[in-house]
Specification:
alpha/beta; 3-stranded parallel β-sheet; globular; binds flavin mononucleotide
Length: about 425
Amino acid sequence: MRPRFIQLAERAKFDLIFIRDSAATRDGRIEVLSRWPQYMAYFEPTALLSAIAALTEHIGLVATLTTSYNEPYNVARRVASLDHISNGRAGWNVVTSSNVSEAFNFGRDQHIAHAERYERALEFVDVVKGLWDSWDDDAFVRDRATSRYFDPAKLHYLDHRGKHFRVRGPLNCARPPQGHPVLAQAGASETGKNFAAATAEIVFTPAQNLREAQSFYQDLKGRMPKFGRQPDELKIMPGLNPVVGRTEAEARDKHDYLQSLIHPDVGRELLSWDLGGIDLSDVPVDQELPYERIKGTLGSTSTLDRIVEMAKAEKMTVRDLYRRYGGARGQQTLVGDPKMIADHMEDWFLNHGVDGFLIQPSVSPAGFRDFVELVVPELQRRGVFRTEYEGRSLRENLGLARPASRYARAVSQPSDYAAE
Ligand SMILES: Cc1cc2nc3c(=O)[nH]c(=O)nc-3n(C[C@H](O)[C@H](O)[C@H](O)COP(=O)(O)O)c2cc1C
């Protein structure tokens, strides 16, 4: 990812940049992967974003880290460090690993089952938040007069003992500037949505049309009170693949050209990947999917169901499907001139389908530059997008409150330091 690209996003006043991740290369037909190098060789997100933090001032920096093949202590420390390094701009995209091959790098022969992954994730997030509260905000007094660096009463041991983790703490990193860095998620299954309602502050789950977006919006926000949360504590931002032209005809030509560039072998592999690894290499692209081969997946059943439903409903051939689904990987694609794209975004935003969008053009940086130069000014003119950052932290810019420490409500004990 080039710094200039991120600086462009910051000049355009984007909330955040978001980096996906996996703890493995993708597996598949190596001949095909050599034509489709995405997620084969790339940097670890917290390391990359720490470097980017030094080149930016306002934009949020959201890193993906899996709860399935990490330990909470390491994640808490890495994300807290990023929050300090960036002066309160860090976020953590909590995933349970959609790449089943991650298992092979962590002493397992098979990916952890879906329900168990989410059970582990729930406990994982609780432990991470607890570790972030290890130190009170004002624990580091650095008082020369009493030769005291920190106040011992303001340090807390978590002493967590749960089904998946035993973690004593405390974290060897001061409380993050945001209290807790912002938590993002993209659950689409029932378990995933409950997890998001309980923990997430940003959700990236895709939606294909306004009705689907509204129903997801109401569903997810409606689940939050059960977990003691208010609906505005979570911002829903589904992915959007904008293909922008100065005219609609120009945008259509651009889109057709981009679609035509998907190599048929890559198209089949794209589908095979999300359909649980079934072999499609012998299937002619002008035929329908061999539905009888699809048995289920250890990855995401919600993703698999969505693809199969879409293909069956519209009797799509393999080529139709990889062009529609594969180009944007399940995110919605919008093709049009700046006004058409802005109309659509405004409609979804004003009609309670979304709180924002994750802009994911199928080509970068050109597709992103088109969006920034042509669509962002139109959204700003209509007053539905900021012209200046509102605050300093990612939380402030998203309008999310800073969480109090879990120890803040505990009866305060007289501190050794204060007593001196
Ligand atoms: C925009 C977006 C980004 C995602 N990024 C990652 C990622 O970086 N790593 C990963 O393992 N899964 C990623 N996922 C997959 C989700 O975490 C989730 O597993 C998927 O949406 C299916 O939901 P489910 O787990 O509830 O079945 C992403 C999903 C979306 C929509």
